[in-house]
Hints:
Elements: H1 2-51
Amino acid sequence: MAEAATGFLEQLKSCIVWSWTYLWTVWFFIVLFLVYILRVPLKINDNLSTDI
């Protein structure tokens, strides 16, 4: 019985580690996507401020 509980805890720990890895990967790609999308408005903003 104790072996089954230990195996379950190991599986749970492994699942938590993988979920954090996936969350960091998703966060990283969201940040990259936002920088890519916002780069054009930021450049327009910089160009307008340098012309004035």
